[in-house]
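Tip: read the tokens left to right.
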């Protein structure tokens, strides 16, 4: 886990969890704000990054191919500029 970024990327509005195809919040792959499990789009690759810009304290879970919980993002606002999308198949905003 990386420390929270100073400010959210311009393409990740308040209330969203955003996933990027490249490190350092480049090339937006998805942004979700709904509170249920959602598959990530194909083509996210193995690198990438994410920014949690949801309501303060809201966490997001990362799930594998068979529904196994891989990890949970810290409460918003939080981020990881060097994430690993390879094993992730879906995310779930816990709001």
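Filled-in amino acids:
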């Amino acid at each position: 886990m990386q420390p929270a970024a100073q400010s959210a990327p311009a393409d990740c509005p308040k209330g969203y969890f955003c996933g990027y195809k490249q490190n350092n919040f480049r090339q937006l792959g998805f942004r979700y704000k709904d509170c249920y499990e959602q598959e990530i789009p194909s083509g996210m690759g193995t690198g990438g990054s994410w920014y949690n810009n949801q309501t303060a304290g809201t966490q997001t879970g990362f799930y594998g191919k068979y529904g196994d919980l891989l990890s949970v993002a810290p409460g918003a606002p939080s981020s990881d500029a060097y994430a690993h999308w390879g094993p992730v198949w879906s995310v779930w905003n816990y709001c």
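The chain has a mean pLDDT of 92. The first strand starts at residue 16 and ends at 22.
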